[in-house]
Amino acid sequence: MKRPFIYGELAEDENFIDRIEDRKQLKTFLGNGINVTLISPRRWGKSSLVKATMKEMQAENSKTVVCFIDAFRLNSETDFYNAFASAVVNSAASTFDKGLEYIKRYLQNFSASFKIKGPYVEVEVDLRQKDTPKSVEDLLNLPQVIAEQKGVHVIMCIDEFQRLADFPEWSKMEGMLRSVWQHQQDVTYCLYGSKRHILMDIFTNSNKPFYRFGQTLYLKKIATEYWVEYIVNTFKQTGKEISKEWATKICESMENHSWYVQQMSFFVWADTETVVTEEIFHRQLQSVIDTNMPVFESETDKLALSQIAMLRAIVAGEQKLNSNEVVKRFNLGGPQTITRNKGVLIKLDILEKQGGKLVFVDPLYKLWFKQTYCG
Question: How many Cβ atoms are within 10 Å of 219's Cβ, its own excluded?
């Protein structure tokens, strides 16, 4: 039997929940040639959303070609150009020979070697650049050139786009990418990632090249009603039962965080023979916390004592971190220390600002932290 409740991989088909309005928005913008920047915390399901939306767009219009690049494991400008060329060639070329033809015809200023990946014919390009601005521009224009030749609309989807900002060459790359991409009439870019503060700086800072590159979208959590229906039906399909009440409690305990709702649902499902009980729920809530504990411990071990103190204050519901009472009660340090620690914890994606308040990005980390540091 195929296991229910998918986490740790892309959610597809029956495991993809709701996102009706999000898909509609993406299709409207990207289908009409408007670039999109999609931002959300890690493991909220943005990659699954983009994948599902692109699948729909290709089914609705055979003239849509989609290229996917995962920038998470890339470490340099060269890595990115190799991944970029590979994605375009593999998505646009119907055969391996056609892919070779594209490289020879359109990337004459590069020498290239090729690898065959997996059971299917797929080109992995290893470009050795003749270091001139023109050669880089030719490579970045490859989607537009192929779009014109084939009469198609190319959508370039780049996951974890903020990773490029870590490259030593980013200050040079940033201007080049924008200057080339903004003139492409038949190519649209969907750039998405999880480091909100970095992406905001790239796309909303008026001093940066990518300022107002396209439409910025902030992914919201899936509503409880959709999760409850999915959880109850999935239990039912496997011969087990969970009430709407306990399904709702799963969502509430995980604050509708996509990864954790799926994980918690799976743990409860695996521990249930017939019907979910209160005992099963609480036992598995602790199991989920314990399972993720090594990661949380590792993250917290890197923090200064004053930063841990600030997290304790946030868990306790405090927001006026500079008030004398809160400073003294939690030993937060002086004003400069407080300001610096806010910035560090936001940069580490442990805290973020929502509606003017500092909140934990990861709801399960908050539960673990509360147990460990607050009793």
Answer: 18
Rg (CA), the chain: 24
What SS3 class is residue 75?
coil
- Altogether, the residues listed in the chain come to a count of 375
Tokens of 168: 């030593």
Q: How many angstroms from the chain centroid is the CA of residue 195? A: 8
CA proximity to 158, closest of 194, 193, 119, 196: 193
Residues 186 and 183: their CA atoms lie apart, in Å, by: 9
Q: Which residues contact 170 (CB under 8 A, 6 or more apart)?
A: 164
| Contact between residue 222 and residue 19 where contact means Cβ atoms under 8 Å apart | yes
* Token output for 48: 């699954």
Please give the Cα distance from 235 to 178 (Å, whole number).
Answer: 48
Q: In angstroms, what CA-CA distances link 44 with 228, 246, 254, 262?
A: 17, 21, 12, 11
Helix (H, G, I), strand (E, B) or coil at 120: coil
Packing angle of the helix pair 278-301, 244-253 (nearest 10 deg): 10
**pLDDT by residue, tens only, the chain of 375 residues:** 467 887 655 545 555 566 788 888 899 999 999 999 998 877 777 888 898 899 999 999 999 999 999 998 899 888 898 889 888 888 876 655 666 666 667 666 665 666 666 554 455 666 665 555 567 888 899 899 889 988 999 999 999 999 999 998 898 899 999 999 999 999 999 999 887 888 888 998 888 899 889 898 888 888 899 899 999 999 999 999 999 999 999 999 999 998 899 999 999 999 999 999 999 999 999 999 999 999 999 999 999 999 999 999 999 999 999 999 999 999 999 999 999 999 999 989 899 888 889 999 999 999 999 999 987
Classify each residue of 140-176 as buried b or exposed e, where b means 16 or more C-beta atoms within 10 Å of its C-beta.
Answer: bbbbbbbbeeeebbbbbbbbbbbbbbebeebeebbeb
pTM (2 d.p.): 0.73
Spatial contact of 224 and 248, defined as CB atoms under 8 Å apart: yes
